[in-house]
Specification:
Family: Belongs to the LysR transcriptional regulatory family.
Keywords: DNA-binding, Transcription, Transcription regulation
Radius of gyration: 24 Å
CATH topology of the largest domain: D-Maltodextrin-Binding Protein, domain 2
GO molecular function: DNA binding; DNA-binding transcription factor activity
Number of strands: 12
Order of helices and strands: HHHHEEHEHEHEEEEHEHEHEEHH
CATH superfamily of the largest domain: Periplasmic binding protein-like II
Number of domains: 3
Organism: Cupriavidus necator (strain ATCC 17699 / DSM 428 / KCTC 22496 / NCIMB 10442 / H16 / Stanier 337)
Distance between the termini: 52 Å
Protein name: LysR family transcriptional regulator
Largest sheet: 5 strands, mixed
């Protein structure tokens, strides 16, 4: 192991890592070489040198092109992290030189935005007004992919959706509560309690199959002895969901409770008194194990961990 590490540290070149990434993206040595402004023979020699250092082939050759094997997937993942970390270092150094506060890229699940991310970023901006922020909202699984590739510094989401959750540090923050919502003018009775059977006459807005709330609705309907609606309207956008609910009183959907509460306060939505039977999922701070956070990212993590318990409960109970 030490001899392999010595060989890599002594001979590995950044261009070899960039070539691996290009090969993963193009599945063709010719196209990857062109993207790297190299000759194909130079690219082939560079790949052979890297495979020799690692004492393992990294790609399988087939009619469909070059596909990374298990070794290749591992090395490419780390290559992306190293290239991204180097880029982040250059940006941070440039920011320090220019007198600005650097940059932090954050991934966040929808339900954590109103009651966790927004107040925490307000505190961070007060502490570092020159800090540049990039925020990406998506599912935990997709955000972890961006974290793995080095495009994000941290994720506010779930690590257990990964096939290898041990690759991450995880610090729980709260539970993502989900509510059944309708437009503010929806004719549903203002009862003290309702069930899914009471919504049988309304059309559901559902989420794309890869999204957790799609599976949540499926479980809840199964528990209620109901079939998944065949005429559902599917979207991956909370904005589309809210706009359609507000415009059509015949629709019903799910939203994270913290998100729904914002629109309830604006008299755009109503939360129906439907109690979900599924256990609510915990979310928290996810960072790469073994990765180095910038000073600004460390400060953000510290603010998140110091989030008052009452604020965390609000994120779970609004």
């Amino acid at each position: 192991m030490k001899s392999t590490l010595d060989a890599l540290t002594g001979r590995l070149r950044m261009k070899q890592l960039q070539l691996l990434i290009a090969l993963d993206e193009h599945s063709s040595l010719h196209q990857a070489a062109a993207a790297m402004a190299m000759t194909q023979s130079a690219a082939s020699k560079s790949l052979q040198e890297l495979e020799g250092m690692l004492e393992a082939p990294l790609f399988e050759r087939s009619r469909r092109g070059m596909r990374p094997n298990a070794f290749g997937h591992c090395v490419i993942r780390h290559a992306r992290q190293l290239v991204a970390d180097l880029g982040a270092m250059c940006e941070e150094v440039a920011g320090i030189r220019a007198g600005s506060g650097g940059r932090v890229a954050i991934g966040v699940i929808m339900g954590a935005v109103p009651e966790v991310l927004v107040p925490v970023l307000a505190r961070l901006r007060q502490a570092q007004p020159e800090l540049a922020l990039e925020i990406i909202e998506d599912t935990s699984l997709r955000l972890l992919g961006l974290l793995d590739d080095g495009h994000l510094d941290l994720v506010i989401g779930r690590s257990l959706v990964s096939d290898e959750p041990a690759r991450y540090h995880y610090h729980p923050l709260g539970d993502e509560q989900v509510a059944v919502v309708v437009g503010h003018a929806h004719p549903a009775p203002r009862a003290r309690a309702m069930g899914f059977a009471d919504l049988a006459g309304y059309r559901w807005i559902t989420y794309a199959g890869h999204m957790p709330m799609h599976a949540l609705l499926q479980r809840e309907l199964d528990l209620a002895g109901m079939s998944f609606p065949a005429n559902a309207i599917s979207t991956s956008s909370a904005f589309v969901t809210v706009a359609m609910l507000q415009g059509d009183p015949g629709l019903v959907s799910l939203l994270p409770t913290g998100v729904a509460a914002m629109f309830v306060r604006q008299k755009m939505l109503r939360i129906l008194p439907v109690r979900l039977q599924s256990r609510q999922q915990t979310f928290g701070i996810v960072t790469r194990r073994g990765g180095a956070l910038s000073a600004a990212a460390r400060q953000l993590v510290a603010i998140l961990k110091a989030l008052p318990r009452t604020a965390q409960q609000a994120a779970a109970e609004v």
